[in-house]
Amino acid sequence: MSSGRPATHCKKHLLLKGLQLFNQQGYHNTRLQQLLQCCGVPKGTFYNFFSSKDGFVLAIIENYFQLEAERLSITAELPQASHFQKIYKYWEIQIETYGTETDRIATLIANLSAEMPLGSTKLRLAILKTRADIIQVITEDMQICQQEGSIRSDVTPRALAEFIWCGWQGALLSVRLCKNTAPLQEFLKTLRLLEQAPGS
Amino acid sequence: MSSGRPATHCKKHLLLKGLQLFNQQGYHNTRLQQLLQCCGVPKGTFYNFFSSKDGFVLAIIENYFQLEAERLSITAELPQASHFQKIYKYWEIQIETYGTETDRIATLIANLSAEMPLGSTKLRLAILKTRADIIQVITEDMQICQQEGSIRSDVTPRALAEFIWCGWQGALLSVRLCKNTAPLQEFLKTLRLLEQAPGS
């Protein structure tokens, strides 16, 4: 191609805009036509990249999970802080940048979990796999936190990770309902329950 | 009316079946036609009771919140147990009967929170009000638990209630994804973190 936008640019733009639209409007309320108009991309180009709306969502999940996993491991800042403090800071930044910088894959998963038709087995399994991958990352973090003694150790790292994931997902639903990030902030504040309890 | 089913029967049947279908399939995937077929009710009868699909959902929320609030306050059993143990038992029963006895309003709220179009302000406000009402019920329970000393008191009752609500909502999303109640069971198990911490 010697002129126009390169194909990779188009594809990336569609993936990013798709994530944003699905998160803002929900999966079913987002029409393909609207996505194409927002991106200035003809229908034929879309179908060069993706087989269907479901295939498009799968591509978004694959693309953004990698990005999110990288973010999760960015804990090099705050060299003096405990691992729990670093993760806590990462969660705070996620809330601060909610809806601005990028819309997160966690929101997409929350929406899709609720909206998904019963028949979409391939899509369900892909979401389930991403859920498991994210929980695995959090589990490893909880393991480190317990080893350094910054959080209570009377619950397994995996149980803690599942607990955090559920709470975060539920808080995201409340954010959508309340139209502000207060539920996420409240959730994060109360998550300090995980730290060593007073008197222990 | 001297013959056929009384109107109140029809209306109740529509509300119950509607709750079940919305919870199983999601709001957008449930067609009015399917509901009418399941209930053997003609379209005209539906519109005698409800103005629209949104109006129908509002009626379901109003109807079942009352029912759920009554359930929440049924803690007369286990006379020797602490208030926290009674509530915990109630939550366990909710999980045991998930998807069988009735589908709960909490699932409907989780699904609607994710699916709701941005424009449906009346519906959003109704869901928000029900969310606030349920959290208020849990807040009062947490207050009693803290007074009797069965749960930790370094977090406010309202913050605890919001935390429990978010976790439960997120676990419901995971249940939909996993197609079993393990995420709810895991969440409930870890919720024992609320009890007095070891060493305190």
From TrEMBL, chains A, B:
Source organism, top-level taxon: Bacteria
Chain ranges of the HTH tetR-type domain: 8-68
InterPro entries (alphabetical): Homeodomain-like_sf, HTH_TetR, Tet_transcr_reg_TetR-rel_C_sf, TetR_C
UniProt DNA-binding residue ranges: 31-50
Any GO molecular function: DNA binding
UniProt keywords, alphabetically: DNA-binding, Transcription, Transcription regulation
Gene3D superfamilies: Tetracycline Repressor, domain 2
Database matches in Pfam families: TetR_C_13, TetR_N
Protein's recorded name: Transcriptional regulator
Source organism per UniProt: Bowmanella pacifica
